[in-house]
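Weekly modeling sync, notes
Attendees: S.R. (lead), two postdocs, one rotation student

Agenda item 3: backlog of single-chain predictions. S.R. asked that every request posted to the team notebook include the full sequence so nobody has to chase files. The rotation student volunteered to paste the first one in as an example of the format we agreed on. Action items at the bottom.

Example entry:
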Amino acid sequence: MNADEILRLASAVVAGSVQAAARLITLIENDGEDAASALRALFPHTGGAHVVGITGPPGSGKSTLVNAAIRVLRAQGRRVGVIAVDPSSPFTGGALLGDRIRMQDHSTDPEVFVRSMATRGSLGGLAPATGEAVAVLDAWGAATVFVETVGTGQAEVDVVSAADTVVVVSAPGLGDGVQTLKAGVMEIGDVFVVNKADRPDADRAVSDLKMVLAMAPEGAWRPPVLPTVATTGEGVAEVLGAVSSHARYLEQSGGLAARRKARWRREVVRAVEARLRAQTMGGAAVASLDGLVELVASGQLDPRGAALRLLAAGRDAAGGAASGGVRVDHIGVAVRSIAEASRFYGEALGLRGGPPEQLPAQGVTMVFFDAGETRIELLEPLTPDGPVARFLERRGEGVHHVALAVPDVARALESARAAGFEPVDATPRPGAHGTRVAFLHPKGTHGVLVELVEPAPRVAPQPEER
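Predicted structure, as returned to the notebook:
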C-alpha cells in the first residue's frame, strides 16, 4: 500500500467509514508498516472518546451488559465502538467470536462498530493490539468505546491501563466473600456491577462488594455498586449514569490526562517490546540461540551475557551493523593477572564476566566482560614467550587489540591483503568460543593491532516433529 492509499484509508476512518476502520484494525493486528503510517495520520483526531473497560469473571454477563448499554447510548444518538477480546481459537489462532455473537442486535447499525480480537497468547485480559484499535475507533468518531476483556481472574487487570473508566462486573453464585476479598480486580474498579440481580443471593453479593470497598482507603471517588439485569435492561441506565459521573470527576480532578498518559506509556512499551522480540527472535538471529544455550549450559556464558549477544545478532540481522556486516566485537586488554584486573571491571564497574578460558595456541588465558553492545577481553599470558607476554614486557598493561566481527574472516583477510595491509596470520585460526580469527599487523593499521573475528557457526533449529 503506497503513501496516498494509506492517507486515503486514514481519511476514510475520520470521515466515519466502518469499512475503513475494520480494514485498518486488521492491518494493526497484522502489525504491518502500513498500519504504523496510518496511525500517524489518525492520531491528531483522537482524544474525544470516553474509553470504558468492562471486566470481570467468565459468566458474569459482560457481553450482555455491553449489548444493553449500546441500546441505551444509541437511543441518545451516540456513536459506539466495542473491542471485545475473546480467547484465541486453538485451531485458527483467531477470536472465538463469542462476545460478538451476543451483540448481533446492532450488526446493521452503521453507528455501532463491534470488533472481536483474539488474545493471541497475551496475558492480562487484553489483546496485544487493543490500545491501537481503540485509537482507530476514537478517530472514527465513537463517543464511547467499550473494551470488554476476556473473562478475567485475579491477575488479568491490564484493562486499568487501557481505559478511562473501569466497570467490574460480577454475578451472584460466582464465589463467596473470601473470593471477593482475594480478587485483584477489586483494586481497579471505578464502577461495580452485580449483574443477574434477579437471582437468589443478589442482595448478599451487593453487600459483600460494598463491605470490601468500605475497607479501601478513603478517596475522592467512591466506586458505586449497582445491581442490573442485563437481559432485560434493568439498571443499565444507572450504570451508564455512574460511568458519566466518573468521567466528569476525572475531567475536574485532572485524572483523565494522567490515565491517558499511562495508557500511551503502556502502548509505547508494548511497541518497543514487540519490535525487540521481532528483531531478536527473527531470521538469522534466532539461529544463534541454540549455540548460545550450549555456552550457557556448559558454564562458559551466563544467561544475561547470552541475551546481550542475541540482541547484538538481532541488530546485525536487522541492518544495525556497519556496511559490509562489520562491527566492533570486543577490545582486548593485556593484563598480568586476570584475577586482579577483574576486580576493576567486575567490582568497580559492575560488568558481568564469563569463566576464564585457556587458548594454548595463542599462549593466553582470556575472559570476556559484557559491556553494553560490545565486550572487554582480558588477556593474561599463559606462557612466558607468547605474544601477550612479549607485549607486556615491551609496553606494559593496556589495550592490546581491537576486534572487528566480520561475516567471513577468510574473505576479510584476503581483502585486507589485496589492499596492501600486512596480516599477522596467513590463514584464519581458532579463537575463543568456537570463533575463527586473524590479526592484521599494526604497522598498516595506524598502530593498532586489529583482530578479525568470524562468529562461531550457528546451529539451525531442528524442524518440529509432526
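Discussion: group reviewed the output briefly. The chain has a mean pLDDT of 82.
Action items: rotation student to repeat for the remaining queue; S.R. to check formatting next week.
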